[in-house]
Amino acid sequence: MDKFREGVRDLGDEPARQTEGAQQQGKSGMESAKQKTQGESKSNPMEKAKSAVEDKIQGLREEGQKFMGGDKGGSGR
């Protein structure tokens, strides 16, 4: 629980570093997505960053559910 909260707090305190880490983690998945939307990625780098952040958030949710036990982790309370 505490570890999960630290992760969430880090996301708020250091968004640039967390985004960077998410891009590193999600790189393999991003490669295939980049091929599909190659033109879009070049013109709109925010799309790349957004999906990387979503990957990170999904990872944190899964981690939180491990600590909380089941679906309760997604309630945000």
Write a short abstract of this structure.
The chain is mainly α and 77 residues long. Helix 1 packs antiparallel against helix 5 and helix 2 packs across helix 5.
Task: Summarize the structure in words.
By secondary structure, this protein is an all-alpha fold. The chain has a domain at 1-12 and 29-68. It has five helices and no strands. The chain has helices at 2-13, 15-25, 27-36, 38-43, 45-68. The longest helix has 24 residues, at 45-68. The radius of gyration is 14 Å and the shape is elongated. The protein starts with a helix and ends in a 9-residue tail after the last helix. The mean pLDDT is 65.
Essential attributes:
mainly alpha, about 80 residues, elongated
Radius of gyration, taken over Cα atoms and rounded to an integer in Å: 14 Å
- In terms of DSSP E residues, the strand content is under 5%
The global form is elongated
Helicity, in percent? Answer: over 70%
Please describe the biggest sheet, giving its number of strands, its sense, and whether it closes into a barrel: none
Q: Termini separation (Å)?
A: 12 Å
Assign the structural class, choosing from mainly alpha, mainly beta, alpha/beta, alpha+beta, or little secondary structure: mainly alpha
Low-confidence stretches: none
Order of helices and strands: HHHHH
Enumerate how many helices there are, as a single number.
5
Average predicted local confidence, pLDDT? 65
Give the strand tally: 0
